[in-house]
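One-letter codes give the sequence; each number marks local geometry. A record appears below:


***
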Amino acid sequence: MHLSRHSRLPHHARAVTIARSVANRHSLILLVTGVLLTLLALIYTPRAFAGPVEDGQKIIAAQVQAFLDDDAETAYGFASPAIRTLYPDKDRFFAMVKRGYGPVYRPDNFSFGRSKVDGDSIVQEVLIKGPDGKDWTALYQLLRQPDGSLKINGVQMLTGVAGAPI
């Protein structure tokens, strides 16, 4: 009669060996399950849950693109109700931007800097290289609207690069 490796061990030693084997399998299963769940969470995280800063940056980038495309209607669509009260039509709004916000209207390039969220308000720093090669910092204020959207409520232009408090 042939005896297996386990049958040669005393009964309590066999039980310990089996228990360790089961525990190792369970640990491996838990590890693999955890890794898979983490990967699935990363892959399937909906973009709809982007934070307010990312949402604000998308709006600013879209408005800048509208300026570059000379699309007054789209650019005006990102303006808050307060801005729309000051500039009641897209043409007046567009003329104001061309006249007073040249680096925003025609940036050579831009990037996002620091941001600050305070309740329904976001201040986003935008570092701009103007069409004349000068560096600017634009501080955008965005406000959450009753419908949940974010609208641009104002832009403060500062000469130079980041450093001013936001």
